[in-house]
C-alpha cells in the first residue's frame, strides 16, 4: 500500500530522438543573458560578467508539436529560443575539463517569458518566478544523444514565427560555454542525472499571440515546433 496521501503526479520526461526511451527530468536550470546581443537588447552590459541562473519547474516542459496555452495575467509573452543541455551525470564542484562527461545530449527549447510580469518583478526587486516558471513555459524538443552528435560548439540558432525569422544567432556566440556553465552551476547546486540546462537565447526575442506557429532550430541538434493557443 502506498504511503502517499494521493497518487504522485507523473514523472516529467523528454523524448530521446530515434528511440522509445524517455529522459526523466529532475530540474530545469536556465542561464540568463548568455548572448551579448541579447544582453544589449535587454538594456544590459554585453561584457563577460559572471553568469546568473534561474529555474523553471520540470512539469512546465512541453513536447515538440505541443500547444502552448497563452497564460493568464499577462499581455506580453515573449519567445526565447535556446539549446538545452541534458545531464546523465552529476556532482558538486565539477572541474570544467570534466563537465562534458556529464552530458547525455542536447535539444532545442523555448524559454517562454511573461515579460510584463518579469519587468514588474525586476522593478520591485522581487523574484522572477511569475515571469518564468509558469505552466507550459519550457517547451523542449527530443534530445539528440551526445554519443551521436558530439558536443556542438557552433551552429545556427534560429526561431521563425509564422514563417518569418525572429531570432538568429550561433552557438559560438555563447558568452559562457557549456563546460563553463556546468562547472559554475555545480558550485551552486549539486547536479544530478535528469537535470536540464537552458543555455541562453540570442537577440530578437519578442511577443507571441494566439495562433502563432513557432519553428525553432539549433543546427546539428534538432528542431522544435509549437503553436500558441
Automatic annotation (TrEMBL):
The lineage of its organism: Bacteria, Pseudomonadati, Pseudomonadota, Alphaproteobacteria, Hyphomicrobiales. InterPro entries: Fumarylacetoacetase-like_C (IPR011234), Fumarylacetoacetase_C_sf (IPR036663). Keywords: Hydrolase, Metal-binding. One of its GO terms (molecular function) is hydrolase activity. This is Fumarylacetoacetate hydrolase family protein. Residues 28-228 form the Fumarylacetoacetase-like C-terminal domain. Gene3D superfamilies: Fumarylacetoacetase-like, C-terminal domain (3.90.850.10). The keyword Lyase does not apply. It holds the Pfam family FAA_hydrolase. SUPFAM superfamilies: FAH (SSF56529). The keyword Hydrolase applies.
